[in-house]
Amino acid sequence: MSAETTPEPERLLAAYDEFGWKQVKVDRELKKPTYEKWQEKTIPREELRRHVEGGGNVGIQAGQVSDWICAADLDSEEAVRLAPKFLPETLKSGKQGIPTHWIYRSPGAGYRQFRDVDRTMLLELKASENGAGHQFVVEPSTHPEKGPYRWMPAFNPALVAEVSKEDLTKRLGHLAAAVLIARNFPHDGGHDYANSLCGYLLRNGTACEDLEGILEACWPADKVRPHNVAGAIGDAEAKINRGEPVTGGRTLEELAPGLPKALAKALGWAHRESEIGETGHESQGRHLTDMGNAERLVARHGEDLRYVHPWRRWLVWDGARWKVDDNGHVRRLAKDTIRTIYAEAGDAVDDQARNKLARHAMSSEAQRSIEAMIALAQSEVPASPDELDADPWLLNAENGTVDLRTGELREHRREDLLTKIAGAEYRPDAPATAWAAFLGRVLPGEELRAFVQRAAGYSVTGDTSEQCLFINHGGGDNGKSTYQEALAEALGDYAMRAPTEMLMVKRGGGIPNDVARLKGSRFVAASETEEGRRLAESLVKDLTGQDTITARFMRAEFFDFKPSHKLWLSTNHKPEIRGTDHAIWRRIRLVPWSVTIPPAEKDMQLPEKLRRELAGVLAWAVRGCLDWQRGGLGESEEVRQATQDYRIEMDVLAAFMDECCLVAPGVQAKFSDLYAEYGRWCEVSGEKAEKKRAFGMLLKERGFEPDNGAKNTAIRRGIALLSGREPPPSGGEKVNQQTPESEPQSPPEPENSPDEVNQTTKRLTNDELQKACKNTESNAKVNVGYPEITMNARYPVREASYQKQVNNINYVNSVGSEDAGVRDRKALEALENGNGPRKVLGEFRDGAADLGRLAGSVAVYWGRPLSEAPSWKDPTLKAVSALEGDE
After folding, report:
1. 3-state secondary structure string, 464-491?
2. What is the DSSP letter of 777?
3. Which pLDDT score is estimated for 513?
4. In this structure, are residues 364 and 338 in contact, taking their beta carbons and an 8 Å threshold?
5. Where are the alpha helices (DSSP H) in 347-445?
6. Peptide bond between residue 140 and the one before it cis (omega within 30 degrees of 0)
7. 598 to each of 381, 473, 478, 631, how far by Cα in Å?
8. CA–CA separation, 446 and 453 (whole Å)
């Protein structure tokens, strides 16, 4: 069917679809949808066509579902008449040639209604900011009494004006105020009416220019006008500033009962609506007491005040966020409230009331009265910590609030209860040339840069589902601190510089503010740890989790909060992590910063350049947030490998087991033998040995449960020392020995067979070692502090260790006839290439390792017991000399 032959109703329905306006079926008589959950349903066009042909009406659902289309619905004659003086020109709709629907596109606008003093509807804003569902009827519909709806002019979406939510709300409020003033004009006393209106509206914050526009528009033609509206407003403003009454006659409430409250609601003074008394002053009718003054303070300024009892702090609205009052702002508002009592006295209806109010105002100026007013107001505007910054997807920027789910910007709102603000404006297209060049230089890998951007994007949200600790690691002059500082500056209040001590093991309790300050923070940056410092693993688990945290500020009450922070640690020295459990290591993301910037290439002005691009840095982070939401944090091979290497490096026990032990079913060892060998290995390797009890717990974590052998000897099953590692000499168990390990005790056992006794202390021969490696079942689970693996899993750690020991032993046997110095030189070369258990050759040459340690490493490389290390010193020194001679 061609456009020429398509019926008009069908063309309109198709046009609404084309422009993204969601259509709903409307009952003609009831003027609303009658089917359930109509806000959530989409009606096919054919069904809509049949509905209209059957006598039904069609409406447009307002709000985001229709690209933020909304309608100002003018329900009164005065609203229709005055609308052109307040509303922007746009596409209109109506009946009988009267434009009662003014159509706008206004992102974020919500439903509002404006009523007369008798509750008659004057006008509505048919809009929806939360999907609750509001609709307005359009052509091709028919009103049951007034006939068909028509577009004015013909339907053309290009005529729809786009207006911000704030501007549209303000314009509708002014229109409603003008309608109210016109409809409630008194039969006499026009001069007093003008004065009382000026006094009432100016006292409550209406701007002079806005008031002039309202009065000029609404003053009835048949009523006596003020000779000079602007002059009358100026006189009223001057009297208010001097603390004088504006009118000596009747009050606004007396002239037009109910009008002050109706105007308050129309102009958005919702918190004051119930406070307006008969004089039009919001404080009129209050008791002349400290509590009455507190009520006056809340009535006048409560919209901009909140008190957080657990913090014992006031918050004040500064136009963009709720800020802790640390400069006496609440006290100044209290003084301002007292000054209004003098004005209240000036407008009193008789001398007695006037004198009482004046005396009360004077006594209220005392310091005790001011403090009492503030204290009594605390309970009237409460806010709890868990209400503040509660939405994890809102990011407050200097120029508005960003919805991180979409990357869209909207206006600041009191009801969001945001206490923080970023350090820059949010402009999605803000340039960041220096930032991009910096990242490209210090993080040359594209995959790594993308990971860091997603991690930064995740960190600007209040979501903590990834449960990560990000560790930026590398030597100096590699940009990691510059990165953290730039991102922290861009995030402003959302970033927190934390003392590194907060994350490290320390004696005694920490300052409670350390944890309490995390409330509402998102990007928490700590820098530089000393070498050898140990991570407070239990605290890190708590701080990177999602469970409620309890904290308090100094000398304040405890409070609970949901974590929103992400921890970033920038350091040259990786903190020590002793835990081998999955719970700690699944949280660690080690980001390697491996590029060192040479002195000649350093840009000393880089921090200032990045400071000028903070808006671009913030936009970069928001883009990372959107990428993270689409695909998660994801993997970076560099981060994965660096984190895995970090884990292996920290697992001292696993290294000991790699070099000294066999893990296989059917083997066992005395606990005392294991601990003694472990102590000697730590001494030679330069590692710190755990105390005996801790060593036993680490073995137990890996599945080597304590048991009793012959004569109640403490043993561990499933683990044995490698061939050649003899039991320690008498007293050898005193290496780092503290209290004896708590081993399970049982009643005396029957005498064991000689075989069983021998098995307890047995050392494996070469053949036995090879046989154990070969015969270990492929599905035998081996616990080395990582998630369980099998002998044939990817990179079978334990099997590889066995095979290396076998290969070393076989190689020693094959070169046994060679000169010891030649043989050891080969071992040193292998150590130098990183193939041995420890890279000690360079340390030896730098004086960091003694000859005994180097000889011990060579011995271990050949699969020999550490007890033989002294006999290897001379040939090892000879081999070192040979290597240095080659150089």
Report:
1. CCCCCEEEEECCCCCCHHHHHHHHHHHH
2. -
3. 62
4. yes
5. 351-363, 367-377, 433-442
6. yes
7. 57, 18, 9, 36
8. 11
Q: Which residues pair with 125 in a beta bridge?
A: 72, 112
pTM of the model: 0.54
Q: What is the pLDDT of residues 618-633, one digit of tens each?
A: 999 999 999 999 999 9
- The DSSP string of 116-159 is -TT--EEEEEE--SSS---EEEESS-EETTTEEEEEESS--GGG
Ramachandran angles phi, psi of 464, nearest 5°:
-125, 25
| Radius of gyration for the chain, computed over Cα atoms and rounded to the nearest angstrom | 40
- HEC letters along 278-298: CCCCCCCCCCCCHHHHHHHHH
Residue 369's nearest CA partner among 309, 377, 754, 241 is: 377
- How many of the other CB atoms lie within 10 Å of CB of 403? 15
Please name which of 70, 58, 67, 47 lies closest in space to residue 24, comparing C-alpha atoms. 58
Q: Where are the beta strands (DSSP E) in 320-363?
A: 322-324
Centre a 10 Å sphere on the Cβ of residue 430 and count the other Cβ atoms it contains.
Answer: 16
Q: Residue 863 pLDDT more than 80? A: no
pLDDT band at 248 (very low <50, low <70, confident <90, very high): low
pLDDT tens-place string over residues 758-806: 333 334 444 544 444 444 433 333 333 333 322 232 233 334 444 444 4
Is pLDDT above 50 for 5?
A: no
Give 94's contacts (C-beta < 8 A, 6+ positions apart). Answer: 100, 101, 149, 150, 152
Residue position matching structure tokens 């009747």: 250
The burial of 354, by beta-carbon neighbours within 10 Å (0-12 exposed, 13-18 middle, 19 or more buried), is given as: middle
Tokens of residue 153, six digits: 């002019």
Residue 853, token pair as written in the block: 């340690």
What DSSP designation does 562 have? Answer: -
pLDDT in tens, 310-358: 889 999 999 999 999 999 999 999 999 998 888 777 666 567 777 888 8
Please state, in angstroms and rounded to a whole number, the distance separating the CA atoms of residues 232 and 239: 11
Contact yes or no for 832/876 (Cβ under 8 A): no
β-strand partners of 321? none
Own/partner pairs, 791-797, CB within 8 angstroms, 24+ separation: 797/654, 797/658
Tokens 């002039």 identify what position? 212
- For residue 364, which phi and psi values (nearest 5 degrees)? -70, -15
Strand pairing class (661-670; 714-721): antiparallel
| Contact residues for 248 (Cβ-Cβ < 8 A; gap 6+) | none
According to DSSP, residue 105 is labeled E
Q: What is the pLDDT of residues 823-836, one digit of tens each?
A: 777 777 777 665 55
Say how far apart CA 317 and CA 321 lie, in whole Å: 6
* CA neighbor of 838 nearest in space, from 856, 865, 811: 856
User: Measured between alpha carbons, how far is 338 from 344 in angstroms, rounded to an integer?
Assistant: 10
Domains, the chain:
8-175 (no CATH), 187-385 (no CATH), 464-614+637-648 (3.40.50.300), 656-792 (1.10.10.10), 815-886 (no CATH)
Residue 325, Cα to own-chain centre: how many angstroms? 23
φ/ψ of residue 523, rounded to 5:
-110, 105
Q: How far apart are CA 794 and CA 46, in angstroms?
A: 59
Q: Is residue 782 a contact partner of residue 790, using CB atoms and an 8 Å limit?
A: yes
Distance CA 662, CA 673 (A): 14
Task: Report DSSP letters for 630-691, one per residue.
Answer: HH-S---HHHHHHHHHHHHHH-HHHHHHHHHEEEEEEEEEEHHHHHHHHHHHHHHHTPPPPP
Which strand ranges, in their side-by-side order, compose the sheet holding 313-317? Answer: 305-308, 313-317, 322-324
- Work out the average pLDDT over 833-849: 62
